[in-house]
Amino acid sequence: MYNVWIVDDEPFILEGLVAVLDWPSLQLNLAGQAENGLEALEQIEESEAKIDILITDIAMPEMNGLELIRVLKEKSPELKSIVLSGYNEFDYIRDGMRIGIENYLLKPINLEELTQTLAATVEKLNRSRIEALSPDQIDLLKDNILYRWVTGRIGKEQWKLRSEFLRLRLQAPFVAVAIIKPDPEQRGSSSGLPYEVRQEACVYMQASGIPCLVFQDIDDHSLLILGAEDDSEETQTRLSKIVNELGERLSVHTGIRPFIALGSMEANFEQAPASYRNALLTLDYALLFPHELVLTHDDISAYAERQGTLLANSDTYTRLLLADDEDGLCKQIEEDLEAFSQMQGVSPSELRSVAVEMIIHMKKLLVEARQSKLISHAYHDIMNRVFQSSSLEQLKSHVRYIAKEVSQALSGRQDKSPVIRQIVEFVQTSYMEDFSLKTLAQTYRVHPVYLGQLFHKEMNQTFSDYLNRFRIDTAIKLMKTSSMRTHDIAKSVGYWDTAHFYKHFKKYVGVPPSQYKKLM
């Protein structure tokens, strides 16, 4: 929203403009109004509000409109001004052009012309804001708004305003979302990998004639919102073929072999979140199809139908989860895995596949309840462990763990997400070691910015505050229960720089360690 100030000595003009225009729809906020230039100047200085657009009459007492524009532009050169006047005089127009006005509108005001002028001015302000940003900042803004859109975190009006500002447009009657998940472990370093994938996807889709918006999510997956003219089988086959070709191209140009999950084809851009959810479900099946480059939502739907007998009790799992019967659910899982392991000719890989199917089914309930983020980090870790399991007991343990997490998330008993609980436990047992939020983010495969935000949201404090408080509390206990010297205590709780320890001790306790010892 941009701030607008209206100045006119005719009350009916002021009241009329305030009432007749739909300011929010123009991305504008009516910040104030005044009856002459001097009054406006005083109000603006008192409010300390940033004024983006000034709509002013010229002929007013105390200070005329052109003088007001000159004074305000000295402080804010980027100010946009629209002049209203009952005089069609060349000198006024010439002076207005010299100081840089957007338009000179004659009274009585033509509302259509004023609306068009405001829209053009807003567009100019938008362009100037974007031009002031670096390419990386623009990409971050686009990533943020597109990710919030597909995850349902912003409404249509917010999307409209922000997408127009960033010029995010996809002109196509049908859309499908694809998620590209590279495996950075296939090469020595993953630095710059998301950028390479993003650039390659943009270039290839444009060359293939597919309307496309490309962005990254918080897990550094590359997401593509792809446009299509219709949802015919022929079109979907062609889209799948192009996505497969993109995967092969990425393998060659980036040195990694990605897995691409293609969501359902949906009618109109507003349904992109539905396609994204289906792409996420498809992504879960990556471990079951290690040799596939691209997997579509239709593929997994067909697979689920063929494999239906493997999860004969899936409805039972759903019922037990919704009934919050955690013990009954774990018992059912153990019985089913035990029974399947006793079937003749069952291989270890088939047994692992059944465990994966159980986990995917339970996570699907969370996706439908919009709660999947509560277990996302634990989920990916467990899925990898399932395929590394060497015994039936390990498989049972992994599936039971996810079952408990899902049960708690659905029932609202889970006050903290698994990754935050793991980090809190790590801090409490490893506080003396050298680590940071960034190193923990790498350990738990979470984006550091997201992890910091999640920690603050769930713990009501920053990670650094929590870590330092815990270390200082532990240091105080050692002061009370041991004869250790201060610098030894500092090292034992994770501060290798004694000055750093003194600084944080005084911050959280209020006095230096030496003075605190005297008070004990």
Automatic annotation (TrEMBL):
Q: Where is the Response regulatory domain?
A: 3-122
Q: Which Pfam families match?
A: GGDEF_2, HTH_18, Response_reg
Q: Which UniProt keywords apply?
A: Cytoplasm, DNA-binding, Phosphoprotein, Transcription, Transcription regulation, Two-component regulatory system
What Gene Ontology terms describe what this protein does at the molecular function level? DNA-binding transcription factor activity; sequence-specific DNA binding
User: Got a GO cellular component term for this one?
Assistant: cytoplasm
Modified-residue entries (4-aspartylphosphate), positions: 57
Q: List each copy of the HTH araC/xylS-type domain by range.
A: 421-519
Q: Where in the cell is it found?
A: Cytoplasm
Question: InterPro entries recorded for this chain?
Answer: CdaR_GGDEF (IPR041522), CheY-like_superfamily (IPR011006), Homeodomain-like_sf (IPR009057), HptR (IPR051552), HTH_AraC (IPR018060), Sig_transdc_resp-reg_receiver (IPR001789)
Tell me the GO BP annotations in alphabetical order.
phosphorelay signal transduction system
Q: What is the recorded name of this protein?
A: Response regulator
Source organism of this protein record: Cohnella herbarum
Q: What is the lineage of its organism?
A: Bacteria, Bacillati, Bacillota, Bacilli, Bacillales
